[in-house]
C-alpha cells in the first residue's frame, strides 16, 4: 500500500509543479510538460513491478505511435481559443477530435500490420 501511495504522491507532485511553474513562465511549463515525465514514471513503475522488458518496450512503442494523434489536440485547442470559442467548449472539441485521430491512427497502423 505504501508503494502505491508513493506512486500517487510522486505523480501528483510533478503535475502540480508543472501547473505552478506554468503560472510564472509558459516557456518553462511547456518545456517540463513536453518532457515525457509520465512515460518515464510509467516505465519505472512497470519495471519495478514486473521486471518485464518486453512490456516496457511494447508500452514505449505504443506511446510513440499514439503521440502523433495526440498532437492534434495541441494544434486545435489554441486555434479554437484564439477564435474566441469558450474554454471548455474548445477543450471538448479538441479532445473529441483527438479521440477521432486516435481511432484513425489505430486503423492506419492495423492496415500496415503494426500492432499496439
Care to give the gist of this entry?
The protein is mainly α and 116 residues long. The chain has five helices and no strands.
Largest sheet: number of strands, sense, barrel closure: none
Q: Let me know the number of strands.
A: 0
What is the helical fraction, as a range of percent? Answer: over 70%
Structural class: mainly alpha
Strand/helix succession: HHHHH
> What's the Cα radius of gyration?
17 Å
Please give the alpha-carbon distance between the first and last residues: 30 Å
Strand content: under 5%
Low-confidence stretches: none
Number of helices: 5
Overall 3D geometry?
A: flat
Mean pLDDT: 93
Name the features:
mainly alpha, 87% helix, flat
Structure description:
The protein has 116 residues and is mainly alpha-helical. The protein has a domain at 53-116. It contains five helices and no strands. It has helices spanning 2-24, 26-34, 37-50, 53-82, 87-111. The model has no long low-confidence stretch (mean pLDDT 93).
Amino acid at each position: 500500500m505504501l508503494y502505491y501511495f508513493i506512486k500517487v504522491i510522486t505523480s501528483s507532485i510533478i503535475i502540480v509543479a508543472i501547473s505552478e511553474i506554468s503560472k510564472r513562465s509558459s516557456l518553462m511549463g511547456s518545456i517540463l510538460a513536453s518532457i515525457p515525465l509520465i512515460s518515464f514514471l510509467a516505465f519505472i513503475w512497470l519495471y519495478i513491478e514486473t521486471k518485464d522488458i518486453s512490456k516496457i518496450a511494447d508500452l514505449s512503442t505504443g506511446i510513440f505511435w499514439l503521440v502523433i494523434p495526440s498532437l492534434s489536440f495541441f494544434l486545435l485547442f489554441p486555434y479554437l481559443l484564439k477564435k474566441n470559442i469558450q474554454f471548455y467548449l474548445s477543450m471538448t472539441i479538441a479532445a473529441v477530435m483527438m479521440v477521432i485521430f486516435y481511432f484513425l491512427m489505430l486503423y492506419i497502423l492495423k492496415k500496415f500490420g503494426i500492432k499496439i
